[in-house]
Design a protein that fits this description.
CATH topology of the largest domain: TIM Barrel
Distance between the termini: 31 Å
Mean pLDDT: 88
Strand order of the largest sheet: 3-6-7-10-11-12-13-14
Pfam families: ALAD
Low-confidence stretches: 1-48
Family: Belongs to the ALAD family.
Main location: plastid
Largest sheet: 8 strands, parallel, barrel
Strand content: 15-25%
Number of helices: 14
Number of domains: 2
CATH architecture of the largest domain: Alpha-Beta Barrel
Catalytic activity: 2 5-aminolevulinate = porphobilinogen + 2 H2O + H(+)
Helix content: 25-40%
Shape: elongated
Subcellular location: Plastid, Chloroplast
């Protein structure tokens, strides 16, 4: 800030007298802003730099001003440097001969400035995709197993959440619908209803926030009366090709509503190629496909299924989701998805599968996504609430670990909270 010195006809003369200048001379050096004599004098203001004021007030430890120190330096009178003092070790520390080491990695970690300069992995709000649960109601319903998360009313709560996320730099969102039971069926036909909850929500978001990126979930489980990602045969087998046929109609419906990225999470064989062909046939060549390439049959999904009320009515999902014990199998899925036209490859869950994220990163040039799933989120929240961990620090470390493993983008329920930390606004 610069201070303002006000001049008027009455005090100009006083300042001139103090400075020893006569009429017609500037009071501050050769400043031409001082009014000259004339028929009518007007008040004038001269701004004096606060930096100059501060410099004049600063004194060295010796008591000298900056100008006096500079004069001493010009004259060759330099102050003696402070004595070198080595910090003392605690009493009882053994006296030893230093290790004969040419390389000491700790040298690059000895100060905050050096640590920041050599940081290999960075993270920003642009790396986050915020999952949003939506429902037909007007009110936002809290999700018990996921503190801080809600089923958002698609007309109001959703828009408010997106607005707040954008305020801290999060511009990518993925939608998950809570579908009324009355609209569920064995074949999940509601999934491709152009006036269904998801298409309506996409159109609303694109109308209010045209520059955001909208991801969608392509799978039948929110729409299936059986709670599975595909059509269930009477003997309990999940039908692959028939399910893919339904998924193609679902993806086209979402693209028609304005989705930027469709994300098949079903783990049916061949669905990426079929979706690419269906989208292209309808003219949606610019709509991207983020494939859930390595989606494991994990126990970390429990809170999510509560949020959408989408637990399987019977059995489990192990015949189509991957075995958590398998690592190399992810390469088979990666090769298939790349060949079929995927634009982004996703690993789910995230933190327990860092090795798989790195495997995909090292074997594909495509962008890699990681999903920090509901179980990961809820465990961090619970640990923080119980005072067992520092929630904010663990949150940020977990996200950094996903980035370090090779994830370009992270689907996380912490997106808004973490972006607030990165923006210096805290975690609220």
């Amino acid at each position: 800030m610069a201070s303002t010195v006000s001049f008027s006809p009455s005090n100009v003369q006083m300042l001139q007298a103090r400075s020893g200048h006569g009429h017609g001379h500037a009071a501050f050096g050769s400043c031409s802003a001082v009014p000259r004599a004339g028929p009518r004098l007007r008040s004038t203001a001269v701004r004096v730099s606060s930096e100059q004021e501060a410099a004049a007030a600063v004194r060295a430890p010796s008591g000298k001003t900056i100008e006096e120190c500079e004069a001493d330096a010009v004259a060759g009178r330099f102050p003696a440097p402070p004595p070198l003092v080595r910090p003392k070790a605690p009493e009882g520390t053994p006296e030893i001969r230093p290790l004969d080491m040419t390389k000491r990695p700790r040298r690059n970690r000895k100060s905050p400035a050096l640590r920041a300069a050599f940081q290999e992995t960075t993270i920003s709000p642009a790396n986050f995709v915020l999952p949003l649960f939506i429902h037909e109601g007007e009110d936002d319903a809290p999700i018990g197993a996921m503190p801080g998360c809600y089923r958002l009313g698609w007309r109001h709560g959703l828009l408010d959440e997106v607005y707040k996320a954008r305020d801290v730099g999060v511009n990518s969102f993925v939608l998950f619908p809570k579908v009324p039971d009355a609209l569920k069926s064995p074949t999940g036909d509601e999934a491709y209803n152009d006036n269904g909850l998801v298409p309506r929500t996409i159109r609303l978001l694109k109308d209010k926030f045209p520059d955001i990126v909208v991801y969608t979930d392509v799978a039948l489980d929110p729409y299936s009366s059986d709670g599975h990602d595909g059509i269930v045969r009477e003997d309990g087998v999940i039908m692959n090709d028939e399910t893919v046929y339904q998924l193609c109609k679902q993806a086209v419906s979402q693209a028609r509503a304005g989705a930027d990225v469709v994300s098949p999470s079903d783990m049916m064989d061949g669905r990426v190629g079929a979706l690419r062909a269906a989208l292209d046939a309808e003219g949606f060549h610019d709509v991207s496909i983020m494939s859930y390439t390595a989606k494991y049959a994990s126990s970390f999904y429990g809170p999510f299924r509560e949020a959408l009320d989408s637990n399987p009515r019977f059995g489990d999902k192990k015949t189509y989701q991957m075995n958590p014990a398998n690592y190399r199998e992810a390469l088979i899925e990666t090769a298939a998805d790349e060949a079929e036209g995927a634009d982004i490859l996703l690993v789910k869950p995230g933190l327990p599968y860092l090795d798989v994220i790195r495997l995909l990163r090292d074997n594909s040039a495509l962008p890699i996504a990681a999903y920090q799933v509901s179980g990961e989120y809820s465990m961090i929240k619970a640990g923080g609430a119980l005072g067992m961990i520092d929630e904010q620090k663990v949150m940020m470390e977990s996200l950094m670990c996903l980035r370090r493993a090779g994830a370009d983008i992270i689907l996380t329920y912490f997106a808004r909270q973490a972006a607030g930390v990165l923006c210096g606004m805290g975690s609220k």
